[in-house]
Every structure is written in C-alpha cells, then in structure tokens.
C-alpha cells in the first residue's frame, strides 16, 4: 500500500499518453485484444486544444504516396466497423476532387492511385462541382470514395468502445515524467502508473515529452486557421451542402495546397482552409497575429475570388487547430531507438485523421511485438539524423 500522502501506484498491460484520435484508436485496438489499458489525457474531455476536435475531416482513397493509398481500404473497413459498433454514422460520402495543373507530377500520382478513368474535363467537373471555376490548363481527378468524417463524433465513439472493452480513461491528468524500464513508470499530476509498454501519442506536445528520453524529434507544431465562408446565395451555386470535398495540388499561388469541405457544420458555410500555418508553441497558440496580418486569410480570399465566386471573400467563422509537421510530412510510427517498449506515434502533418484506425492498429502491433500489417519504412524515426541524444 502507498504511504499516506503518496500517490497510488497502479499497473496496467499498456499505457497510452494522449486521448486525441491516434491515442484513442491505439487504446481501442489494445482493449479489443484484451490488454488492460490506461489512456491518459492532460485536459478534461472533450477539449479543443489539440488536433482532433471539430466536426469534420476529409477521408479519401486518393494519395500521391502509394504507402498511404495502400492503407486506405483497411482504414475505410475499420471506420465502418466502428460505425457498426456504436450504431452512429461517422462518414458521409460526398466525393472528392483533386484540382491542379494538367501534367503536374503530384496530380499524376493521385490519378495513378485511383486508376486512369477518373480525370474530369471542364464539362464533367461542372456537373460534379458547378460552383468551382476551373482555370485554363487545369484538370480535376475524382475520387468517388472521398467524403467527410464527423470528427468529434468519431472521437467520442472510439473512446466509448474503448471503455466498453474495459479500458480506463483518466482525463485532466498531465504526464509529468516517464521512466523507462522493463516496467515503464509514468507520473502524472494525479498518480503513478506502470506498464510493460507505453505508447506516446501526444500530438503537438510530443517533442518536449520525449526529450527527457533522449530523443530530439524534428516536430514543428503549426497553428492553423480553420475558416468557414458564407455562400452569397444559400444553395444557389452548389458550392455548399451538395458539392464534393476538394483539394488543390501544384498551384503556384498556394504551393502548400488549399482544401474545402461542403457546408455541413454551419448551415450555408463552406469550410475552406490553407494546408499550412504559422509555427507555434501549443501553450501559446492563442497569442496569434491579429486580423490585419494574416497571410492565410488573404491567400484564401484571393483564391475564392478566382475559383469560387459563389462565396463571400471574408470568413464568417474562424476556429483554430494544430498540425504537428515532420520535415517530409510523413508520420512517425516507431519504437524508441533505445527503449523498445516505448512506442511513438507523432508528426501527423495535417493528414492523420482518416488513417487513425490503421495508425492505432500499427502502434498496437508495435507495442505487442507483432509483425505490423503495413510497410513501416516510411515512418521510421531513423530517417532523421541525430535524433538520439546522449542525455541518458
Ligand atoms: C485544421 C485541421 C484540418 C485537418 N484536416 C484533416 C483532414 O481533412 N483529414 C485528415 O485525415 N486529417 C486532417 N487533419 C489532421 C488530423 O486532425 C490530425 O492528424 C490528428 O487529429 C492528430 O491526432 P493526434 O491524436 O496525434 O493529436 P491530438 O488530437 O492533439 O491528441 C494528442 C493529445 O495528447 C494530449 N497530451 C499531450 N501532452 C500530454 C501530456 N503530457 N499528458 C497527457 N496528455 C497529453 C493532448 O492534450 C491531446 O489531447 C487536420 C488537422 C487540422 C488541425
Ligand atoms: O488529409 C486530408 O485529406 C486533408 C487534405 C488537405 C489538408 C488537410 N488534410
């Protein structure tokens, strides 16, 4: 028994740090495999301080990189499984178009990931997406499987199933210290816990959390403006609730890309964002530049003027969210190079939500010492140089 005033020590089969979508799916897979799992979250749930909040995210089969498109059938299947488990709809199929200059390398890779028959000419695009003005020399690739995931609902659902399988969620408990060992010891603001395996999925907080473990990961949190734009005449232009999701590639005025989702969460307002943001510290994300000097908003306004004339050119609603980017924008899914029972899932670089069911499965497999079900080479920590520090 713990001495009076000493926190209670509790032992689990697995501990997961961070109850965003990645940690929650990891915990879900562990609990489904009958591992007694503790999911720790620094904030009271639900919260909007990380990367997994909000009502919508894009899901799509199309990806320029084959190693992601190969994971998507598995991911769609696992999303469907979760929908069946909770009896709640989490995905709406709207279709998705990728727009860019004809012959653009990334666009060609997208086309190849779907098969050749999916390219739309101007007339065909106008049928699917009448609100969009395709510019000279541009084409569109249609992914009919594309659509919207209801993000907040999905996060709630996966945590609910985790609990149903006997999992423990402790929110409002910030992890302060991790001590490696055959049994990893995790000290939080509320207790001390031990397990033979630890999975760290701490989003934008991952860098500082793993530094005391001798790892300096090249992770850059970015503050993203999430903007909703009112239709000038509700439903008249079809830019709204009936249009597909879209994303751009290879546009010189927006090299990082712009993407949009139909008006689902706020009536008559299309979600349209820049796939980039300003470097931030997650603790200081609200100390952002004021309206006047927001380059993302100016970029989006000018894009709307040329491409989506049915929308007003000032955002009606603005929210914020965090990306955590790696230099190559590929995920980190790997064991700690020195402590093999500590697993890290991070750097989702603004495209991790749709793949969370597969990410969770892979992190679960790594933590159990099983052969991962997908190719892990693109996600290795060792692709970065000098990450292992000599502090331990
Ligand atoms: C604006 C925006 C649009 C996006 N659009 C898409 C999209 O269309 N499609 C798509 O697939 N993806 C999209 N993404 C990306 C996707 O949302 C993220 O990749 C995903 O949510 C990352 O989840 P996470 O669990 O890694 O991070 P988070 O959700 O941030 O979870 C990490 C959790 O760890 C907790 N934590 C951190 N430190 C500690 C600690 N010391 N102790 C305890 N808990 C801790 C945090 O509080 C947090 O809850 C988008 C992201 C943003 C911001
Ligand atoms: O992951 C996605 O599908 C989107 C693409 C555009 C940027 C935000 N994330």
UniProtKB/TrEMBL annotation:
Example GO biological process: L-lysine catabolic process to acetyl-CoA via L-pipecolate
Domain of life of the native organism: Eukaryota
Cofactor(s) in the UniProt record: FAD
Pfam families, per the entry: DAO
InterPro entries cross-referenced by the UniProt entry: FAD-dep_OxRdtase, FAD/NAD-bd_sf, MTOX
Domain FAD dependent oxidoreductase: from-to ranges: 13-366
Protein's UniProt keywords contain Flavoprotein: yes
Assigned GO CC terms: peroxisome
Enzyme Commission number(s) from the entry: 1.5.3.1, 1.5.3.7
Record GO terms (molecular function): flavin adenine dinucleotide binding; L-pipecolate oxidase activity; sarcosine oxidase activity
Similarity comment text for this entry: Belongs to the MSOX/MTOX family.
Protein name according to UniProt: Peroxisomal sarcosine oxidase
